[in-house]
Amino acid sequence: MVCWILVCALIGFILAPAAMIIAIVFGIIGGVKANDGQLYNYPMSVSIIK
């Protein structure tokens, strides 16, 4: 049980910084596109309202 918790925690420590960097990069790209007056859809997002 302890090993399983440690494995999950270690994977979380690796994936959390990667997810944060990806979110920052996509935010910057979206900001640049919005500044140019273009519409930007975030990758892997679901469009609920069309």
Concise synopsis of the structure shown:
Its main location: membrane. By secondary structure, this protein is mostly helical. It contains one helix and no strands.
Q: Can you walk through the features of this model?
A:
The chain has one helix and no strands. The protein has 50 residues and is mainly alpha-helical. The protein has one domain (1-49). The longest helix is centred in the middle third of the chain and has 34 residues, at 2-35. The N and C termini lie far apart (46 Å). The model has no long low-confidence stretch (mean pLDDT 84).
Characteristic terms for this protein:
single chain, 50 residues, mainly alpha
SSE sequence, one letter per element: H
The main β sheet shows up as: none
- Any idea what the radius of gyration is? 17 Å
Helix content estimate: 55-70%
Fold topology:
Elements: H1 2-35
Membrane topology: Multi-pass membrane protein
Subcellular location: Membrane
InterPro entries: MamF_MmsF
